[in-house]
Amino acid sequence: MLSMIWDPRGYFFWLLVISLCCWGLERVRPWRREQRALREQVGQDLFWLVFNGHYAGVLMAVAAGWIQGEMIRLAGSDPWSLLEGVRLLAEWPLWGQFLFFLTAKDFCEWCVHNLLHRVSWLWSFHKLHHSIAELDWIGNMRFHWMEIVVYRSLTYLPLVVLGVDGAVILWMAAFSTLIGHLNHANLRISWGPLRYLFNSARMHVWHHDVAMHGKGGQNFAIIFSTWDWLFGTVYWPEEEEQPGELGFEGMEAFPKGLIGRLLYPFWRRWT
Predict the structure, then answer these.
(1) Structural domain harbouring 106
(2) Residues 18-47 pLDDT 10s
(3) CA gap 169, 8 in Å, rounded
(4) S-S: 137 plus which of 38, 165, 181, 182, CB 3.0-4.6 Å?
(5) Is residue 62 exposed (0-12), middle (13-18) or buried (19+ Cβ within 10 Å)?
(6) How many domains, the chain?
(7) Rounded distance, CA 184 to CA 202, Å?
(8) 205/135 Cα distance (integer angstroms)
(9) Partner residues linked to 209 by β-bridges
C-alpha cells in the first residue's frame, strides 16, 4: 500500500502538459514584460522540474515499499491493514472524494507551510524555494526533496484512513500542480472576487517578498487563499502590484550551485 500511494509516471505526464501550457501563457501575455524566458538559473530549475516531478516520486515509492516491508518483518503482520480497512470515503463518488480530500489536504499543507517558515531547521530546507529572484511557472518546482518527505508524511495517514481512490490522488496532484504553476507564473492573475477562495500569482508574489510582513512571513496559501484570510496572514497591498525584491534576508550567502543547495540544510545542522 505505501508504495502505491503515488504514481510518478502518470503524474509526470500531466506535469509536462501543464508546464508547457503555463510556459505558452507566459509567452503570450507576460505580467513582467522585461523578464526573460531564459532567465538566470533556469537551467537548474529544469533539473528541479524533472527531479522533483518524477525521480523524487520514484525514490519515495521505493523507500515507502522498503519501510512497509520492514514493518511487516518486525511486527509479523502489516500494521497499516487495520487503518486501510477503515476507508471512510471509499463509498463516496469520486468527485466527493476529490473535493473533501483536496480541502483537508490543502489545510494540512497550509499548516506545514507555516512550519517551514517558523521552524529554523525546516526553514533551512525551504530557503531553496525562496532563493527565486525572478518568479515564473517553473519556480513552483524549485524546492528541496525533503519538503516532499515532510508534506507526504503528514498527509499519508488521513489518505489511508479515508480510503481515497488512486485516480482521485492523480487528479488532485495534477490540479495542485496547475494551481502551483499559475501562482508562480509571470501572469497577472488575481481571480477577481474568487481571490478569497483561490491563491493567485498576484497574491503569492508577496509571499516571496524579501520583507516579511508578519511573524514568519505572509500568504502561506497553497491552493485555497481562504486559510490566510481566516487566520489573518494575508498581505496584499492595494497601492503596489508586486514587491521590489524577491528572496530572503541574507540570500547572498546561500549557495548558488546544485550540490551546495542540496547539502545546505544538513551542513547548517551540523556546523
Answers:
(1) 2-269
(2) 999 999 999 999 999 999 989 999 999 999
(3) 11
(4) 181
(5) exposed
(6) 1
(7) 9
(8) 8
(9) 246
